[in-house]
Amino acid sequence: MPELPEVETILQSMKASLKGHSLSSVEVNRPDLRLPFPPGLSTILLHQTIIQLRRRAKYILMDFQHGWTLLIHLGMSGRLFIDPARQNLPPRKHEHLVLWTSNDHRVALVDPRRFGMVCLFQTEQEHQQPQLAHLGVEPLSDQFTAEALAATLVTTRMPIKNALLDQRRIVGLGNIYVCEALFRARIHPARAADSLSKAETKRLCSLIVEILQTAIAAGGSTLRDYVHTDGQPGTFQTLHLVYGREGQPCPACLAKGHSTPIQRMTQSSRSTFFCPHCQKKLRK
Predict the structure, then answer these.
(1) Which of 5, 39, 42, 162 is the most exposed place for a label (fewest CB within 10 A)?
(2) Catalytic residues
């Protein structure tokens, strides 16, 4: 599933191509994805100008001049393509929603597995939407501080990795970037969230922001389905230190002259990658 850096990369491309333009056509090519497409989608947004594009967690939000917002979630295999003006390209397989803009851009939502989601609501009712109502703090916002992170971690003894993946606490973080952040912070992923020291929490907070910013600059991580809106892959996967590297030597250990293989374990049905030497468990 695309995580915050991948969604942010897609959002920036959409802003550059779509902001300030209206929709000249809305094509809905099937009745549903994970949820049914909203009734009236083809007509409610027609000829309405896009005044803002935003991201909330892993959701893309498109605000229109008449007070409606279109929410897009890419799910497991969803991709958004923006075809430049005047390019007469044939339809892609699994194109379920196509938006045509007044500047002749074609925005296509492709989702082979149909785990994505499209919702439509009045912008003023955003905080009542079930997808958005209970989301936590944005990790790239001014509200994400070491103090705020400590406050949300001290309330739970769940493993620190699970706590960081909990979208009610911090939004946008997924398996890849949590594994990478914990490795760089030298924190074992199974440690209780409330066991982190003040120094560890401060270091982890800083590294989460640093990793996300670096990943955005690299266009995200392409492991399977994710690509940019022009079809190009991201490159942050070449900078992964632990994720997907089970059995390979830990780069931090190698730099110190010894070899420790990266290990994998399962937490809440997800693979966790870590170095048992750099990320030691606390003794009970």
Answers:
(1) 39
(2) 2-3, 58, 270
